[in-house]
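Researcher: I need the complex structure. Ligand is zinc ion. Inputs:
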Amino acid sequence: MEKHDQFLMKKQNKNLVLDIIKRNSPVSRMEIAKITGMSPTSITRIVNELHEQGFVRETELVTSGVGRRATLLDVCGSVLYTIGIELDKFNVKIGIVNYVGEIIAFESFYRDAIERYEDTLKKLKKNIEELIDINNIPSTKIIGLAIGLPGYIDYKNGVVKVSDQLKWKNVKLAEDLKQLTSFSVIVDNELKMKVVAENFMGMAKDSQNAVLVGIGSGIGAAIILNGEIYRGESNNAGEIGHTMVNPTGNVCNCGKIGCLATYISEGAILADGRKVKDLDSIDDVFDAYRNGESWAVNLLDRTSMYIALAISNILSIYNPEVIILSGNTIEKFPEIKEAIEQKCDLYIWEPLKEKTKIVYSQFSNRGVVLGAAIQAQNKLLDIE
Ligand SMILES: [Zn+2]
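Model: Output:
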């Protein structure tokens, strides 16, 4: 074997062992050897190196069945940090996340819907620096940052092609923010970031086939297929908000007629509600439902029907092990869960029903921040 190849293989093995410890911790050296098929001697050497570099620590002694004692290994959370950011129309969230996926610092600030791109970036820089300072995080331990936002994203080049919510078009977000902060920057669609968190430590932990659906001001999905994010040709796979559900229905902001989003997005529900009553926000619709006002009951019954219809179609196409529902509508209006489940029971094809779990995200409003930070660790960490 060439020297260069040897070096590369060593490096790959080391990254593999670290990944296994991270995903399976606490784990013994013997178990790692079993999973990787590497010799116990190689595992011991690699673990020693990882220990010296601060990635891995020994946790506890356990006695295995045959009376042998084994030390379990764990990863050190404080060995490095990444910054996860969620950008949307009115709100920016920033979190500093350690190597075991804990958000150790978090803040959010208001964004004006018509704010200029440059101004949002300047605010971001200021707030990131403050958050690092206040929490005494050594900058040298921060290996990069990642941003999740709604829209069509060229994730390879870190370019926001179109984001209707932020009113951005063809902006080089990764490059521009790197120049401002000097951190490496990754950019992707918000739900694709969120599904990374679900797959690493959430409701789809270690799942090979899972779908996350976001239901709120925007409607979309992110798909894990065979253990990887499924992106399609242009990173737009999962844009279920523009699947057509009624060709003679409402006009969508995309220019088509009868898109799913025109029935279940917050804006759509609110617009229909306003035909009946003066409403300030979507919360007024939920309140009216709780007061038993028939228009609100009808409107949200229709919403749950279209959500169940979307779930049923997704299951037929991807046959995932788990489908995770998330977003503002689910968070603020938990009553809808039962209605969705009842309708799913009627709509979903029997052979798909028995193997699929319909679950709800547990990350509340921090899923994108967490997923982005974890994705930054996945993509930017390259240990020698
Ligand atoms: Zn549309």
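Model: Summary of the prediction. DSSP finds 14 helices and 16 strands in the chain.
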